[in-house]
């Protein structure tokens, strides 16, 4: 359950995850953490690749780590980086979130200097999965009937 | 320029692009087309891969085709599929659009039965790049100063 | 250390990992497991995505899970699926392996009916990371001097 | 047909393609070109993305460009960069080549200073698709019967 205590633990788990980022190319470290329904927290960091396209972000690392351990019951996500503004998930990660999360699931974007003095909620920007990927493409669209018509 | 004529040509180019979709795994054909500032239209189809992760969508096919021919001055995008509802770009494609398009660039999502009788604008759903990827991560974030602090 | 006991544990960990595959689109379950220098085993399963391109294979799931927990000292990999022939990593995964593994690291490809009766090593095909990705592109190539000459 | 003339045109097309590389992050330009059975040449450059994972290499750009124009009858590939050694396709691209090319299709890896004085074939390293991705996973594996057994 997303209590204030769990929310703080979630944020700290995202911050700690960053320590294991493998980002020799971008030098851009990101940490992410999911809260699950049973209060478990699963975190992840970005893992870059010399081929660029093989890079996996922190959010997706956390997702596949959780799913491959039998957890898909996410109820909140926190994401943080080394930047003093809230950094938001890339589109690839948003699509992967879309596969497993409800559209109203909260996503906390945490600046590096959290808690920022005199900032609302310490500088956290709160979004939702649906807010990050409006009018999204999802699993249900693959089930719709096809009408393979060509150019008229 | 996005005249009514160019808009119609763009939609037809997206529909035609679908003919060359390579989608043996999903059987889901998608076509996309960009209008450039000089009225050129560049289109693309989805190209799937046995490894799943190697799949490239229609929108990204059209982007890399255009960019690799020296065009990055996109002013509108049309996307269509074999489905009777407007299908919207996946998150990966939204992120690639974000790299080259202005946030207010129009994106026309075209149903297979376009023009739908009695539907507003023939059933087209009009979005923008920024509307598809709100509070997006982009090139400018990679330029921000880093404060590589660890857990306190 | 790759003792016979550790090798058996590694194979069983790959087989168990398969149980948590999320593969509603391909219905193709894959499990993978890494042995680390301290005898720890980290496993992973494939996690598919409605966008196809967002899919992450079992091998990469295991890599990012390990790396994001501070482990990069892999000494062996086992991969298995629901197929009665040894299934081998896709090119994306081979590139990600290339980032963290030595070229002579053994990769055990395990058929679903392991141990196969009367088959050498129970039907396992043993490869190496370098054997899977010969003359590979790697981190060191990004360090080479550039001579940005154009067409003559 | 892979005549000496076509081979030279192919190499020059790869070199020219590099001019349109979009590589602000890696500063690593790559060009690729395919020869098709009707002697057409289709080329492409790498197109990077702020999200790293959204990056598409030169080889894949050329593939999707060709496929989305109805061409899949590739008979040779040339790849070049700004580096004085032959740079070879990443694993992602090798997997995408695997989808459309025969295993014995030649791949010419061209150094930036081609033709190198006193070097065999001007410094070109010639590989094959099958040689780049030995014991590969391909479309036919998705057709094999599954035996979804679990841990014993
Ligand atoms: Zn991401
Ligand atoms: Zn897409
Ligand atoms: Zn793979
Ligand atoms: Zn590549």
Automatic annotation (TrEMBL), chains A, B, C, D:
CMP/dCMP-type deaminase domain ranges (all copies): 5-140
Biological process, per Gene Ontology: nucleobase-containing small molecule metabolic process; pyrimidine-containing compound metabolic process
Organism: Pisolithus tinctorius Marx 270
One Gene Ontology MF term: cytidine deaminase activity
Keywords, sorted A to Z: Hydrolase, Metal-binding, Zinc
Domain of life, source organism: Eukaryota
EC number: 3.5.4.5
Biological role stated in the UniProt entry: This enzyme scavenges exogenous and endogenous cytidine and 2'-deoxycytidine for UMP synthesis.
Keyword Cytoplasm set for record: no
Pfam families hit by this protein: dCMP_cyt_deam_1 (PF00383)
Residues reported to bind Zn(2+): 57, 90, 93
Protein name: Cytidine deaminase
Cofactor list: Zn(2+)
Top enzyme class: hydrolase
Residues annotated as catalytic: 59 (proton donor)
Coiled-coil boundaries: none
Keyword Disulfide bond tagged: no
Catalytic activity from the UniProt record: 2'-deoxycytidine + H2O + H(+) = 2'-deoxyuridine + NH4(+); cytidine + H2O + H(+) = uridine + NH4(+)
GO (cellular component) term, any one: cytosol
InterPro entries attached to this UniProt entry: APOBEC/CMP_deaminase_Zn-bd, CMP_dCMP_dom, Cyt/Deoxycyt_deaminase, Cyt_deam_tetra, Cytidine_deaminase-like
Family, similarity comment: Belongs to the cytidine and deoxycytidylate deaminase family.
């Amino acid at each position: 359950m997303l209590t204030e205590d769990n929310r703080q633990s979630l944020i700290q788990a995202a911050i700690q995850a960053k320590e294991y980022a493998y980002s020799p190319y971008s030098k851009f470290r990101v940490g992410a953490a999911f809260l699950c329904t049973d209060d478990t927290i699963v975190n992840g960091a970005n893992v870059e690749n010399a081929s660029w396209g093989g890079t996996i972000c922190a959010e997706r690392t956390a997702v596949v780590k959780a799913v491959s351990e039998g957890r898909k019951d996410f109820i909140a996500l926190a994401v943080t980086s080394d930047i003093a503004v809230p950094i938001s998930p890339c589109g690839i990660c948003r699509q992967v979130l879309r596969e497993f999360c409800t559209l109203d699931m909260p996503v906390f974007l945490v600046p590096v200097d959290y808690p920022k003095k005199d900032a609302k909620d310490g500088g956290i920007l709160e979004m939702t999965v649906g807010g990050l990927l409006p009018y999204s493409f999802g699993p249900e669209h693959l089930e719709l009937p096809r009408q393979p018509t060509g150019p008229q």
